[in-house]
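Supplementary Note 3. Input sequence used for the single-chain structure prediction.
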Amino acid sequence: MTTAREAAFRVQAPNSRPRSSTIIALDAKSEAVMRRVADGPWIGSRFLTLVAARPVSAGLQSLQVDVTLADEAGAHLDLAAAMAATDVVIMVVSAGEAAGAAAVIGNACHVRGIMTTGIILAEPGADPAVTLRDLRPYAAMLVVAQGEDYVPAMLQALRA
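The predicted structure, written as discrete structure tokens, is reproduced below.
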């Protein structure tokens, strides 16, 4: 039991707005998993697929500075549009797949103050080492999931 004086300091309203989550599949296998998961009861979540990284030449080397993403309807958008009003970005990739686009996405999130999470979908016989190497520097939290049922559980934990 609290006193009336103590109760005056309680927040009397729910959160002002729900979290806005962007889930990005970085390869074809994770896209299939994401499509199955997208049918869930998600509030304020967008499910996108990596289409291509767009390089810019800088002298002799080419740097990836933007990516093209596709929404569930297949419409293309650039990374800046995908980041608008996003609170958390969750990158999903299959073990053994290169995740080079994670650098572009992770850096874009960093400069905007957006939390990043990476989910690597482990598969029998697939070595997640290359995927871990590509994703680790750009994900504040990184999980190697042993099954696709972990993906919706993780999205729920992140309030997607």
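The two ends are 34 Å apart (CA to CA). The CA atoms of residues 20 and 157 lie 14 Å apart.
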